[in-house]
Amino acid sequence: MSKTYFDPNDLKKFKDITDFQKEYGEKFFDYYGSVFQEGALTAREKALIALAVAHTVQCPYCIDAYTNGCLSKGADEEQMMEAVHVAAAIKSGATLVNSVQMMNQVKQKMM
Amino acid sequence: MSVKQRSKTLSRSNNELADTLIQLNILNDKERLDESFVPFRKKIAEDGLANGIDPVYPDIFQLNIGKLCNQTCAHCHVDAGPDKKVENMDKATLEKCLSIIKKYQIPIVDITGGAPEMNPHFRWFVEECTAAGAKVMDRCNLTIIEAHKKYSDLPQFFADNKVEVVSSLPYFTASRTDGQRGDGVFEASIAALKKLNEVGYGVEGSGLTLNLVFNPSGAFLPGDQMELETEFKNQLKRRYGIVFNNLFAITNLPISRFLDYLLESGNYTQYMTDLIDAYNPTTLDGLMCRNTISVSWDGHVYDCDFNQMLDLKVASPSNHLDNFDMDQFVNRKVVLNQHCYGCTAGAGSSCGGEVA
């Protein structure tokens, strides 16, 4: 067994999740493959969204995969960092907007 | 406009990779890849090519007219540079090329280098090929047009001879372009592209073709060619008013200076594994080694420019212009090695971009 929680080589084993549950695994990969095809959004735009989401879900496998994907699809460093900032802004905004609830409670309970 | 190189040629820096046998030893070192290593021959045998790859009658005569170049790009598979004063084709060898092009009526002449235009016989050769009815492609690094006033009329010369210009531009921003090709390359390339546009290159209806080459500026594979082309067209038009015809996405093969970069940056194992994992058997039919004659500055004959740079001559008695016989040449097997994974990864790669 590995003595670390994350091994970059494990990303290659992702497809093996079908070993334990074939039907759901295959459906997931079909869906996943379709989602990342070019559609109303380009594959590059989708890769940038995926990169941003990868940061918010803090998935090191996804960060590696979509950094590579963004580079291959012609995104530049500035675009990639801006995408992460968008994710960070939403995440911090989501934290801060909840403070309205805190403020409501404070106002309710304070004399 | 000056270009400041970030890299040196392998030979000038006394790098052991200047010895092609050392490159081949590294490519065939199983321990560097562990379980990912699969011999290329074995891989294609699984797809019905146990006897190797058969060529077809060639329609492209590609000559490496010389390794002299005004740039020393970090990824150069030719190890070209300003110090390469010897390895350049002389007029007698060019005459032999011309004789074969005429004799076998090869329709496309693809001139590469180095910077081909620095060869003193370049213009004569282009004119002779054009007069013989061949379509000439020049792999122009763009900055040569800006390098010296004696090259500033190249756009008009190309136009006069209906030369198809194929130019590397790894990205539409300076940082990524200069990182691969040298400081100042992007600015000079944009200036040169504008001059090519001015004489009609890339302009719809002009009949003058300007194609760009996208080589990834790092240890990653190129994405979808069509999508990259759309992005490059939008960005170059919007930012600089530049137009072009097609974009060729070309994978960097793990040889020469790009191999040196991969080893020095610690990316070799992952990059080779990526190439092997992305192996796509549908690329095999369209590989450029099947329909190309590749000739080196000294007249030797190869299956492709990459084999040429690894000094892997054709497996045929017709391995030099002096004893070239088309029947012998066509009835050969392509010489294969581990770098061939570079041409079969993803949508494949050739001097004309994707192949599948």
Q: Short description, anyone?
A:
With 111 residues, chain A is an all-alpha fold.
Characteristics of this structure?
heterodimer, A: 111 residues, mainly alpha, AhpD-like, 0% strand, B: 356 residues, alpha/beta, TIM Barrel, eight-stranded mixed β-sheet, globular
Q: Your description of this structure?
A:
The complex is a heterodimer of chains A (111) and B (356). By secondary structure, chain A is mainly alpha-helical. Chain A has a domain of 68 residues: AhpD-like (Up-down Bundle). Chain A has five helices and no strands. The mean pLDDT of chain A is 93. Chain B has 356 residues and is α/β, with parallel strands linked by helices. Chain B has one domain: Alpha-Beta Barrel (TIM Barrel). Chain B has 14 helices and eight strands. Chain B has an eight-stranded mixed beta sheet. In chain B, strand 2, helix 4 and strand 3 form a beta-alpha-beta unit. Chains A and B meet through helix 3 of A and helix 9 of B.
Q: What is the β-strand count of chain A?
A: 0
**What is the CATH topology classification name of chain B?**
TIM Barrel
The helical percent of chain B reads: 25-40%
Per DSSP, the total helix count of chain A is 5
Number of domains of chain B: 1
Under the CATH scheme, which architecture of chain B would be assigned?
Alpha-Beta Barrel
Percentage beta strand of chain B:
5-15%
Mean pLDDT of chain A: 93
Spatial gap, N to C terminus of chain B: 39 Å
- Strand/helix succession of chain B: HHEHEHEHHEHHEHEHHEEHHH
- Helix content class of chain A: 55-70%
Number of helices of chain B: 14
Q: State the low-pLDDT regions of chain A, or none.
A: none
Largest sheet of chain B: 8 strands, mixed
CATH architectural group of the domain at 42-109 in chain A = Up-down Bundle
Contiguous low-pLDDT stretches of chain B (5 residues minimum) are: none
Tell me, briefly, the overall form of chain B. Answer: globular
CATH class of chain B: Alpha Beta
Structural class of chain B: alpha/beta
Rg result of chain A: 19 Å
